[in-house]
Amino acid sequence: MKVKFTKMHGAGNDYIYVDTLRYPIADPRRAAIEWSRPHTGIGSDGLVLIGASSVADFSMRIFNADGSEAMMCGNASRCIGKYLYERGLTDKTEIRLETLSGVKTLHLHVSPQRQVDAVTVDMGVPTLIRRVELGAGYPFGEGIALSMGNPHLVIFVDDAESVDLPGVGPLLEHHPLFPHRVNVEFAQITGDAEIRMRVWERGSGITQACGTGACATAVAAAFTHRSPRRSAVRMDGGTLLIHWSEADGTVRMTGPAVSVFDGEISLPG
Ligand SMILES: N[C@H](CCC[C@H](N)C(=O)O)C(=O)O
Description:
Layout (H helix, E strand, L loop, with lengths): L1 E9 L2 E7 L8 H9 L9 E6 L6 E7 L4 E2 L3 H13 L7 E6 L2 E9 L5 E7 L4 E7 L8 E6 L3 E6 L8 H9 L9 E9 L2 E8 L3 E3 L3 H13 L6 E6 L2 E7 L6 E6 L1 E9 L3
Parallel strand pairs: 2-3, 4-6, 11-12, 13-15
Antiparallel strand pairs: 1-2, 1-18, 3-4, 4-5, 6-7, 7-8, 8-17, 9-10, 10-11, 12-13, 13-14, 15-16, 16-17
Bound molecules: 2,6-diaminopimelic acid.
2,6-diaminopimelic acid binds next to β4, α2 and α4.
């Protein structure tokens, strides 16, 4: 059976998107693994399933390239907003999206030509913000851990470019402090409200950007008084604007969403 998909990216963090209202995926874990492969598959950071919801307008599920399912994906949520509006699945410019870490609200920025090139997402309230000691045997002494619905470890460094991501990423992704593994961000303060960040994602490795990771980075920087509560997080694939609201504690993330191509592929097996 052939499945139609759309390849999209948010600041270079690229996923395969399938509308499961039309193309149900029985084994998304296996599909994510096989389709994410660069040479024998489509090539992506993972697989995103768009579906129905009984509590919101639509739902999303996100599977990393290793097949692990995540609670939330910031870059994908913006792309879903673009997908739903531009393909006529909704005419709303404020969309409620059910995720495994609760219902998120997408605010679409629509051009006069009815194109959605940017979206602001209410990412919810960060929780479990804490300083952690990484202990002996690790290349860094401490970091700020927190949850954006999914787990993050933010490590502040003097020079983000010099971090050996392939060398230290896997080690920290599997740190015993995080029984479900963790997404690891390396952050360098580059200005009053500017942060350079590189990421090793749980289940996908190095990605060009991480939406929840950018939120975690901005929150950790504000929490440690390294930056104000509004900041720009510059990653390899692009920059996201983050605001950790003083009023209600919600994190709002604004950034791009790009549709690359449509295709079709056979289900695995
Ligand atoms: N690797 C993440 C899921 C994708 C999150 C990221 N791509 C984003 O944009 O938030 C995890 O396992 O929690």
